[in-house]
Records
---
Amino acid sequence: MNSIEVNNLTKIFGKFVSVDNISFNVKQGEIFGFLGSNGAGKSTTIRMLCGILEPTSGDALVSEYSVMKEPDKVKQNIGYMSQRFSLYNDLTVEENINFFGGVYGLEGKKFLERKDWVLNIANLKGKEKILTGSLPGGIKQRLALGTAVIHRPGIVFLDEPTSGVDPISRRGFWELINDLSDEGTTVFVTTHYLEEAEFCNNILLIDAGKLIAEGNSKELKTKYLSGSILEIECENVVVALDILQQQDFVDETSIFGNNIHININEKYKNEEMIKNILTGQNSIAVHKINKIVPTLEDVFIHLLEKNKKQ
């Protein structure tokens, strides 16, 4: 069963096509990763799927409600957490929970049970009177997620939810996401931390408003990177990168920390040849060359470069 069905969804601002005729489905209970660079159309898509922004054309069914015809019903049946924590900093923890509980029409025993649940997942039991603005980022993030799903929606949209949060807090947040998925909640998440996308059941890549790839992490790596990925540790990384970009056998290059990743055709995977180009011909010291398993970032860069050439 699909929680979300998107059909030819398009959004145009003036002459700018932000989202260009996209179609896809999201299964109930899955963690669905929606990835793309800044300006790719991610947030615009989410705003349409949440019933906040009217599409120019096309439609989507969210919890079986049309975003074109029934946006208010869509809003009642989803949860939403933006990249800017959707909480009121000048309210206490308890006041924020009370506010969102009221927005979603919770009251009595049902509200008290959900309020207790939110306090527990945010580790804020006994700290209800603290001002929300004074909370550490990771705790505030958990509180924001709790208030977004306080009404037990079937779908929750998370737009860059871990932006600016430390790695340990991010890991804990993803444990909460997995718990929600295990309980049957569909989680639609955008993130620019590509290592986080490894946790998604399915991933969709968007660039310049168009969908360019879909699949789980393993499928994307297998399907789109058939050549070899080599990691090169060398001196003068920027100069070395420029030299490698000029080689016919190199498809893509990127810098990862102090190293270079290159995607090359299998028949050119002779590390000695690459070392000779850098060291023998250009006097750049090469410390190490290893063939590595491609990351999602490698796949992402490959697909963006490929899309630019089309």
---
Amino acid sequence: MHPADQDPPEPNPDEPVKIPITDTLDLHTFRPNEIGDLLPDYFGECIRHGILAVRVVHGKGTGTLRAGVHRLLNQLPEVESWQWPAGEQSGGWGATWVYLRPDAA
């Protein structure tokens, strides 16, 4: 079989997924039980890269993911403050702006 005709290998679910560090974190591909580890790790990397304002896209849906994100934001020491809804140009009710402490990394 020609290599181009082969299916790509299945990803290993135990292997960490590399996420580009930007000012936007889209949670649509993550399960609610993954955000407890994801958000602190991502925010720490953002601070190390000098990104102190992060738009977290949780979607509008039923609000379960949003509520979990907001609950976690209130507990994380690296979070200075957060704003929801994010504003119409930034995702409205489906996103939250998170402002990070520069000295928290």
